[in-house]
Amino acid sequence: MQEPHMDQEARLLAAVKAAQTKAYAPYSNFPVGAAIIADNGEVYSGCNVENASYPEGTCAEAGAIAAMVMAGGRKIQKIYVIGNGEGLVSPCGGCRQRIREFAHADTTVHICGPEGVRAVMKLHDLLPHSFGPEQLHTHSAQE
Ligand code: THU
Q1: Is 129 within the bounds of a domain?
Q2: For residue 32, what are the domain limits?
Q3: What confidence score (pLDDT) does residue 126 get?
């Protein structure tokens, strides 16, 4: 349960780190966690889940999005992603599109390492000129 004094960043950092500990990444040995705060204020998290048929593994972001949708969330306010190592673990191309489906103009991506947040970017800057549900003249994600 969320502690009343925890600010939003601390809450998201705790969630993303907890998610990373659940990763199933025996092939890459690269555990990743993701945590979304949706516009409804709820937090949803996911981890990467690999399998012996390497390309069939799923990213942490995909798991967090699935958890959000399953619980009825529809709009990503912020998504935190955490990985180990020196570099920035920014969402892969496929996950940028997955995030895009449930993003709004101000959705931000918070890239973290073990020490905390390393960079904050707008999804719009990671995926400019994107294709989205509007192009299909539908409402996003069956609102
Ligand atoms: N991975 C993620 O889960 N999210 C990212 O943003 C980058 C990569 C995973 C996929 C794979 O299980 C492992 O990290 C190595 O690529």
Answers
A1: no
A2: 8-118
A3: 98
CATH value at residue 112: 3.40.140.10
Residue to mutate, 20, 27, 28, 126, ligand 1, most ligand atoms under 8 Å from C-beta: 28
In this structure, the residue with its CA closest to atom 10 of ligand 1 is: 59
* Annotated catalytic residue, options 56, 61, 115, 143: 61
Domain count, the chain: 1
Q: Which of 31, 34, 69 is nearest to 50 (CA)?
A: 31
86 among known catalytic residues? no
pTM for this prediction: 0.92
Residue 81: which H helix or E strand, with range? strand 76-82
Residue pair 20/30 in contact by the 8 Å Cβ criterion: no
35 in a structural domain:
yes
Kindly list the averaged pLDDT for each block of 10 residues, start to end, along the chain of length 143. 72 98 98 98 98 98 98 98 96 98 97 98 98 80 52
Q: Whose CA is nearest to atom 1 of ligand 1?
A: 59
